[in-house]
Structures are given as structure tokens and as C-alpha cells.
Amino acid sequence: MFYSIISAALLLLLPVSPIWAGEKEASFKLTGPVTTLACKMCHTWRKPVLKQRDLKAPHNKIKLNHGAGQLWCFSCHKENNYANLQGDKSAVVDFKNPQKLCRTCHFRQVKSWRGGAHGKRTGSWQGERTSWRCTACHNPHSPQIAPFKPSPPPRRPGTVVNIDKSESKNGG
Amino acid sequence: MVDNRSSRRGFLQGTVALTALLAGGCSSSKEQPKTAFEDSVATFFQDNYQVMTKDEIKEVLARVERRVKREYGVDIKCENTPPVADVAFGYALNLSKCKGTRRCVEACVSENNCGRNHSLENIRVLAMPHGTMDLNKSDHYYDHEQVPNSNDWYLPIQCHQCDEPACVQACPVEATWKEKDGIVVIDYDWCIGCRYCSVACPYWARHFNWSKPNLQPDEINPKTHYLGNRPREAGVMEKCTFCIQKTRKGELPACQEACPTGARVFGNLLDPQSEIRYILENKNVFRLKEEQGTQPNFWYFYDV
Amino acid sequence: MSKEKNSTKNHNKVEFILASLIHCFKGGWLYWGWMLSLIAIVVYGAMAYGQQARYGLSVTGLSDQITWGLYIGNFTFFVGVAAAAVILVIPAYLLHRNQMRRVTILGESLAVAAVIVAMLFVTADLGQPLRFWHALPLLGKLNFPTSILAWDIVVLALYLLVNLIILWYLLYNKFCHKSPVVKRYFPVIVVAIILGLSIHTVTAFMLSGNPSRPFWHTAILAPRFIASAFAAGAALMIILFQILHITSKFRLSKGLIREIALIMVFAQFFSLFLLGAEIYTAFYHNTAHDVSAHLLFTSNIGHDNLTLSIYLAIAAGLSAFSILMVRRFRENVSLLNIASILIFFAVWSEKGLGLVIPGFVPTPLGEMAQYTPSTIEIKVAIAIWAVGAIIFTLLAKVAIAIEFGGLRLKRPVENTDTEI
Ligand code: SF4
Ligand code: SF4
Predict the structure, then answer these.
(1) Res. A11 pLDDT band, cuts 50 70 90
(2) pLDDT for residue C300
(3) Which fold is adopted by the domain C8-403?
(4) DSSP secondary structure letters along C375-414
(5) What angle do CA C351, C357, C358 make, to 5 degrees?
(6) Which residues contact B155 (CB under 8 A, 6 or more apart)?
(7) Which residue, B61, B79, B97, sits at the end of a domain?
(8) Nearest Cα to C286, choosing from C274, C276, C275, C298?
(9) In terms of DSSP bridges, do strands B152-157 and B124-129 run parallel, antiparallel, or are they unpaired?
């Protein structure tokens, strides 16, 4: 589910090569798709626009809806190091450990996530913990979780139909 | 109780033998496949799970598998995985994260072989209007195009696996009890279907099979546990068992796996490193209807 | 020598049973018409029960929201009716109203029938009735003393047993030309009185011991049960005795009816008083605890029938009480009969359905569900009433024949003081 949402979102990016990677981070293992960007394919010979503007092709698939208009590509990606992430006030961060960048703003969430109160563990409740990394659930460009269509409601009492084909039941 | 066992045993075995004899006397050779009638007679005289010997349990499990094969044509595996040592299960649910998708309900129904026709769902997700905690104002049947609906917050409720379970206290025949790992289970072959436990439970966590559960063969989950998700019969109670068939093998419960927002946290309360312990120690948690005194093992919390 | 004595004793017992059985088949067209129509009803109801056995309880109007209904409502009511014996036995043996002693056998017969009916209602309510043996001592695994339902099973069974013992003792001795010795069975009578009060109390506790159901979770429930049971039991007996007076050799003394009517007045007074106290607590403030009562009395959830019947029950109870309060009215037979019928109806609807169903609304998760008994349920319930009527008729027939009609052992028994 997460995988499909996120990878679908990320596949819309430019040349992309998603790798399913597990990476050990401090106390537990992370899982979820990891993307590496092929920015260099163009941006070795073409200078990126560093200023904030409406995204045009080939970047127009990216819906940037993060940080209430205050963030721009280069808030998280740096011109000289497309292979990694780097925020304005963060160290260079590997794509496998996005929380190290996210925490510059979302330190509360990352703290909760480390403790296990945010995000989600997967696989097993015992033994070594494996949890989804931030980007497994949140599209970094538009991190709000989209609304859902709820699964159907339970049946109201009195509207139950007997399964024994022959007889149809209704209490009321 | 122990003293009574031998006499009960004797009586039961006598009756089983007698009935089998009456049934045609073909049960003497062990190799012969058991007939449906023989099996149901044996199930009728079957003892309470809590006092069965290992051999009896083995027989009983095989009988369950045969019954499902007969009724649905499906090969299932019915196990009785015992509790893991030094484990007490607990659940925490993040109300800031829950968006009322009911994915947990869906996953629960298909994991646990619940009847598909009777809204026999062991999790209820309540849509609560903002500004109130009054359950009488809740909506169980919300069916919005999209959730979260702006007027509501959501409160999922299932069995809280209480430490002082009112249901266990109520049952007149000890058909339900609390296991060592904290899971409150039902012996579906022992339950007489009086429904007193569901009257007693403050969380409305017990659900009755008013008729035979409507299960199609392709809907059956073949990995089952005797005290958990094996297909039930008509006239017995059932409840959430924290997916005993999964969690006792180290897996996570189906509702936790299905939740798309990560609102559900499951773990071992006795493990200080577990996430649930982190939540209990670092978040403002609360338990629903704590004043009922059943000491639930299910906590709710909010972000921040 | 003693062996011989024993064998004659056994012989007497066999004869007693045979004579009683044979007597059950002796009766006029009225008797046979009555019995056959009851049997027809039972057969009809048994067919309805067959449906329930086949398709499960889903043929009833019950649901996870309202898990108990008509069956358990009738169960609580009939546990109350079983009080009948106690109402007669207490004055007869503890207050030395000797004229009542002869009719206690009818009270006991009624108790036996009512307990059996109560047990049948519980059985009809079970999802797996064949597994009843799980609740038997030694064989099963009765959760005693933790589960109040287990207590209920125990006290009901004991109460049935004790009443049968008393009945047997009184009738058998009479049958053998001996007069029963009060001293000998007085301890059993005391046990019966204690058990009679316990079956009510325990049944009330079964409901009131659920903090999750605030409507029942009140200490007043047990006293309410006892008060209303005494009223309904007395009412039923007043009517039954008059019917028996007309249809059998049983002769009713005016004084007896008066005494029972007096018991009914007091019981009804307490019953109404306790109900009033309950209503006050429920309505003086508007707390979540009292939602069920509010819903019941204001019919906000569409349980109109229930609300209506509760108001009718209260009205009936009040008017019966006002009739009974005036001595002149109380001693007028037809007014007394009206009052008795009103009380019987009032208690049935207030303590049967009116007590059980509102406890489920709202559910612990705040759901407002509805319940209407299905036709199958009603048929089964009526059939169980009919079973009760059959049992009572047979017991009363034999009891009256022995106590009032002179059905006796043919040979005189030596070495005993022959009566009459
Ligand atoms: S929530 Fe209800 S069913 Fe679950 S253990 Fe507690 S009392 Fe029993
Ligand atoms: S329904 Fe079953 S588990 Fe529940 S109290 Fe009755 S016998 Fe026990």
C-alpha cells in the first residue's frame, strides 16, 4: 500500500531508480523504497534554477506542497550533491535516512518515530525492530496523507439476512 | 476440580465409546477415516480446552481440520501455539492519526474468518463529533465519501484484553479465560452461547454467531489457531484475540498491518525497549472507561 | 424384618407414583380439552423451536446490540413467580397461619412449574443448548462461585429440588394415611424460604452486577425484584385458587384470599415505592448513567411499544394499588380479581421486557438499537408458558386429589397413626 503510493509518486519523477533497501539506523532497521535521482543527467550541462518559481517541464509532475510555500527544491536538494539530501541547516544526508533531514523541522515527529509512537513497525513485534522510513508514507514533496474512501460500514441490526439460502430472516 | 477430572473423564469416555458403538461400531480400528457423525459426537463430549491433555488436544485439532475440510472443502492448519514466555501483549492507538478508514475492520474480518453477512466485526470504528467524548453521540455507520470527515474524530474500539475481564467473570462455564500472554480467549467448543459475557463487557467487544458464519471457501484463511480464527459454528461467542494465530508466532496483528496511517502500535508490555512501552512512558495516554475497573491493556494517545 | 419393611416402603412409593400417574389421565371433557389444547400449543411452539435450532438464534429478533429479549425477560419474570411458594410458606410456617398450610402444596406446585419454565426459557435462549451439560457439577465446568449466572443455575436447581422434596413428603405421607410431621420437614421449609429469596436476589444480581449496563447497575434492583415478585405471585395465586375452586375439589376459604390479598398490597406498595425512587434518581439529573431510563420513558429511540407498555404497567400498578388499599374494595371478589390481573400484567411488562431490554439501549458503545421479538420467538415463548401450565395442572391435580380428594393407598398401613 505505502509502497505503491510512494513508488507511484516517485516514479513520476525524472529518471529514477528505486531500490528496495533496508538500512540499519542507530537502533533499528528501516524499510521502504529509496530513490536516487539522476539529476546529473541534465544538470551537469544545464544550470538549475535556484530561485522559487512554478515548476515547468520536465519537473511539472512534482506537486510541491510542503512547508506552506516556504520550501523550494533547494531546501532539501543541493546543487553540488544530487546523490544525497541536504537541508539548509543539516548535514549531508543519505536517501536511506531521510529522517536526519526531516528532523530539522519535524523534530517532534522524528523523536516520536524513533520511540515508536509515530510511523509504523512492520514484520514482527519481537526481535529486531524494522520500521518504515519517513518517505515510505509521506511523499516528501507533498507530505500530507491524502483522504481515504472508508471501507463499508457494518450492517445495522435487524437488516441481517440469513445465510441459509432457503430461509430469509428478519427479527423485526 | 482436579479430583473431579477422573470421574468426568471416565463418564465422558464411556459415553463416547457407547455412542460410537451405537453409531455402527466401525470406530474400533483407528486407521479408518472418521465420519462426520463420529466427529460431531466426539466434539459434543469434548472437554474444556483448559483441562485437556496434550493427546486430546492433538485429536481435537485434527477434528477441527476435518470439519472445515468437510464443510468448506478447504485444507486448513489448526494449531494451538502456546503463549510466548515473558510476553504480555498491549495495544496503543494514536487518535491523532486514526482517520476512520476502517481498513483494520476489513483486515480483521478476512484474517479471522469472520462471517461476512452478519456485520460480525470485532472492531468498531466510531465517528465522534468534535468536542465530545460521549459515546452515545457516536456514529457507528458513517459512510462518507471521504474520511476524515471534517466534523468527526474517530475512535476504534475492540477487545481491550482486560486484566480483570468482566467477560471471564461472567461466563458460567469457564468457556472463556485469560491466557498467560494477556489474550482473553474463548473455547468455541465449550461455549454454551448464553451471551452473558457480552452483557458484561463494557467495550461491546464480544460478538455472537447468530447463525452459521457465511464464509466462502476462497475466503477462508487456512492458518488458524484453536482459540483464535478457526471457522466458528452457529451459537457461539467470538471476540478479538489480537490475532493470536499471528502474534504468538511473532507476527503483528492484522489490524496493525492494515492501518494506513500508522495509528496502531502493538507490542510486548514486558519489554522495556518496545514501542508500546515508549508510548506509555512518553505520551499522555488514557484508557477508555477505566472507571469500569476491568484494567484494559489498550491505550489511546495523541500526538505531542 | 427390616428388609421386608423396606420392600413394602418401596412398594408404597411405586404405588404412589402409579396412582398419581393414573390420576393424571382421569378427567372430564374440560380437563382433556384444556390439556389437549396446551399440548397442541406446545407442539406448535416446538416446531418454531425446530426452526431456531436449525438456523440458529438469527431467527429471533435479537442482535449483538440487544442480546437478550423475550426469553430472558420471561425468565426473570418466572423466577419471580416461583416466589409463590414462599409467599404462602412464610405465613403458614413462620407466622403460624395454620389454615394456609394445606394450600402450600399448591404454592409449591406453582413454584415447581415456574422454575421449570424459567429454566426452559434460559435453555431456549442458549446458542448451544445441547452443551447444557457443561454447566453440570462434576461433568462440566461450572464457574462457581465467580459467575452469577452459575449461582443462578445452582440456586434454581436447588430450589426446584427442595420444592419437589416438600411436595413429595407432604403428598406421599398423606397418600400412605400418615400425617406429615411438621418438625421433620420444617428444616426443609426453612431452606426453601432462604432459596426462594435467593433465586430472586441472584437473578437480580445477575443483571445488577454489570457496571457496563447502568440501567441495571443499582442496588435497588434486588429489593425491587422481591417486592414485585411477591405482588405478582400473590396475584397469580389469587386467580389460580379461584379457578381451582370452581374446577376441582379444592375449596377456598375466604380468609385465605384475604391474607394473600394483604400480602399483595404490601408487596405492591413496596414495588411502586422502589420504582418511584428509581425514577427520581434517573430524572432529577441528566447524567449519562440514566440515559437508558430516559430513553425508556420518553421513547426517543422508537421503542414506542416498550414505552407504551411501561406507562400502561405503571398505570395498571397504580390503579391496582388504589383498589387494594381500600379494605372494602379489597374484599370484593371481582374488584380483587381485576386488581390481581392488573398487577400480574404490570409486573410482567415492567419486570420482563421493561427491565431487560432498556438495559441494552444504548449499548456500551452508545448505539441505539431496536428489538422486536420475532414470530418464532413469540411462538416458542407461548409454548413454554403452555409447558408451565401443563406441569402446574398435573401437579395441582394430583396434589388436590390427595390433599382434598382422598386419593389414598388402598391397603391401610400398620403401625402408624391413621389420619381422619
Ligand atoms: S474488552 Fe470486554 S471482551 Fe475484552 S477482555 Fe475486556 S471485558 Fe472481556
Ligand atoms: S456466551 Fe459462551 S463465552 Fe460467553 S458467557 Fe456464555 S458460555 Fe461463556
Answers:
(1) very low
(2) 59
(3) Formate dehydrogenase/DMSO reductase fold (1.20.1630)
(4) HHHHHHHHHHHHHHHHHHHHHHHHHHHHHTT----SSPPT
(5) 95
(6) B95, B98, B125, B126, B128, B138, B288, B300
(7) B79
(8) C298
(9) antiparallel
Cell of B147: 474520511
Domain ranges of chain A: 2-137
**In this structure, are residues B150 and B184 in contact, taking their beta carbons and an 8 Å threshold?**
no
Quick one: cell of B154? 474517530
Cβ pair B214, B72 in contact under 8 A: no
Cα of C196 vs centre of ligand 2, distance in Å, is: 26
Domain that holds residue B38: 2-79
- Higher model confidence: residue C86 or residue C360? C360
Percent of chain A with pLDDT over 70: 76
**Cα–Cα dist A143/C226, whole Å:** 65
Q: Write the pLDDT tens digit of every residue in B257-280.
A: 999 999 999 999 999 999 999 999
In a domain, B152, yes or no: yes
Peptide bond into B148 cis (omega under 30): yes
Of A157, A164, A171, the CB nearest to C374: A171
Question: CATH number, domain at B189?
Answer: 3.30.70.20
Single-letter amino acid, residue A43: H
For residue B126, give the 3-state DSSP assignment: strand
Residue A3 binned pLDDT confidence (cut-offs 50, 70, 90): low
Whether C62 and A171 lie within 8 Å, measured CB to CB: yes
- Residues in contact with ligand 2 by the CB-under-6-Å rule are B 170-171, 173, 175-176, 186, 191-197, 237
- For the stretch C120-153, pLDDT in tens is 999 999 999 999 999 988 889 999 999 999 999 9
Q: Distance between CA atoms of A71 and C354, rounded to whole angstroms?
A: 65
Is C315's pLDDT higher than 70?
yes
Cell output for C358? 432498556
Extents of the domains making up chain C: 8-403
Give the per-residue pLDDT at B183.
Answer: 97
- Atom number, ligand 2, closest to the C-alpha of residue B192: 7
CA atoms within 13 A on the CB side of B189: 23
Is B229 a domain residue? yes
pLDDT tier for residue A18 given thresholds of 50, 70 and 90:
very low
Question: Could A117 and B279 be called an inter-chain contact, meaning their C-beta atoms sit closer than 8 Å?
Answer: yes
Note whether B72 and B104 are same-domain residues.
no
Alpha helices in chain B (DSSP H): 2-22, 36-44, 54-72, 103-111, 166-170, 196-200, 244-247, 254-258, 275-282
> Is residue B84 assigned to a domain?
no
Gyration radius from chain A CA atoms: 22
Grid coordinates representing A57 are 517541464
Burial C135-155 (b: 16+ CB within 10 A, else e): beeebbbbbbeebbbbbbbbb
Backbone angles phi, psi at B285, to 5 degrees: -100, 160
Say if residue B130 is in the same domain as residue B229: yes
Interface chains of chain A (3 or more CB pairs under 8 Å): B, C
The confidence band for B25, taking pLDDT boundaries of 50, 70 and 90, is very low
Is the predicted pLDDT of residue A87 greater than 90, yes or no?
A: no
Q: Classify each residue of B95-111 as buried b or exposed e, where b means 16 or more C-beta atoms within 10 Å of its C-beta.
A: bebbbbbbbbbbbbbeb
- When pLDDT is averaged across residues A27-50 and rounded to a whole number, the result is 83
Residue-level pLDDT at A4: 55
pLDDT (average), residues A154-169 = 52
Q: From B79, B98, B127, give the residue that closes a domain.
A: B79
First to last CA, chain A: 41
> How far apart (Å, rounded) are the C-alpha atoms in residues A137 and A59?
22
With an 8 Å Cβ cutoff, are A126 and B250 in contact?
yes
Residue B6 located in a structural domain: yes
- CA-based nearest residue in chain A for residue B143: A153
Whether the pLDDT of residue B176 is over 50: the answer is: yes
Q: How many domains does chain B have?
A: 2
